[in-house]
Each structure stands twice: as C-alpha cells, then as structure tokens.
Design goal:
Elements lengths: L3 H14 L1 H6 L3 H11 L2 E2 L4 E2 L4 E2 L7 E3 L4 E2 L4 E2 L2 E2 L1 H4 L6 E2 L2 E3 L4 E2 L4 E2 L4 E2 L4 E2 L4 E2 L8 E3 L4 E4 L4
Parallel strand pairs: 1-4, 2-5, 3-6, 4-9, 5-10, 6-11, 9-12, 10-13, 11-14, 13-15
Antiparallel strand pairs: 7-8, 15-16
C-alpha cells in the first residue's frame, strides 16, 4: 500500500507520461483515451482537439461530459498555484466541469472550480472565470454572456 505522498507522486508521473501522446495523437478518440489514461473523466463521444491541456497535475479533477467539444489549444485547469507562489494564500485545487454537448472554442481557458453547463458555448480565446449556465454563449476575457439563453 502506498502512502499518500507516494500515491500522489505516482498519479503525477502517470499524468505526465501520457501528456504528449494526448496532445498529438492523430484522432480525437485517441487524444481522449490518452487523457483518460492520465486520469481525466471524459464522457463518451467527447471531442478533444490537438494540444488541449487538461490540468497537468490534477487531471482526475477535470470532468468533460458526453458529446462535449474541447477545441484545439484549449486549457482546462483544476489547480491554480498563483497565490501560493506569491505567498498571499494557498494553492487552489477544485473540480472543473464541462457539461454534455458543451463547446469550448479554440484556445479557450477554463479556470479551476468552474462549471460549464450543458450545451453552453465558449467563444474562441475566452477565459472562463465563473460558472456558465446551460445553453449560454460566453465570450471574452473574462468571459461574459453574449446573449440571453434561448428557451
């Protein structure tokens, strides 16, 4: 039986080992499979683009719903060490969710602890700092709702 630290270190090694294949595999299905091997929770039929970064230290804290699309060069984080590095606080580690059939545009960034609702759309290059409601369309830095959700 591994100690807590040894178990965590083994998870980090596994997450790092499969990172490059997950970045560059020739098909979305293979990229999703490598991210699953890293520990990410990815639903059936989810599309994962090239060079998608699913948290490098805590991929098991990232959850992507069935049929969701994460476009190329997007980043989904489950941890933030900024405050720990500046000695102003502690590292943030939180589960991050992308709902079923949600769409993340090219080079979008989702911060730790954020939930993207089902069928929501995140515009290309957006930085999502807060939860996004089901069916909402958000764009910008920080991402803001573009128009009210259709009923």
């Amino acid at each position: 039986m591994q100690t807590g630290r040894a178990s965590r270190d083994a998870r980090h090694v596994r997450a790092a080992l499969f990172l490059l294949p997950a970045f560059f595999a020739p098909s979305s299905r293979l990229r999703a499979a490598f991210h699953r091997l890293r520990g990410a929770d990815i639903g059936e039929g989810a599309e994962i683009g090239y060079e998608v970064l699913i948290d490098n230290l805590y991929p098991e804290r990232v959850h992507i719903g069935r049929g969701a699309t994460v476009s190329a060069r997007s980043t989904i984080l489950a941890h933030d060490e900024a405050k720990a590095y500046t000695r102003d606080g502690e590292e943030v580690v939180a589960d991050t969710y992308v709902g079923e059939k949600a769409f993340l545009g090219v080079a979008s960034v989702v911060l730790p602890g954020v939930t993207i609702g089902p069928k929501a759309i995140v515009g290309a290059g957006s930085v999502v700092t807060k939860d996004v409601a089901e069916g909402a369309v958000v764009v910008g830095v920080p991402a803001k709702e573009l128009r009210p959700r259709s009923r």
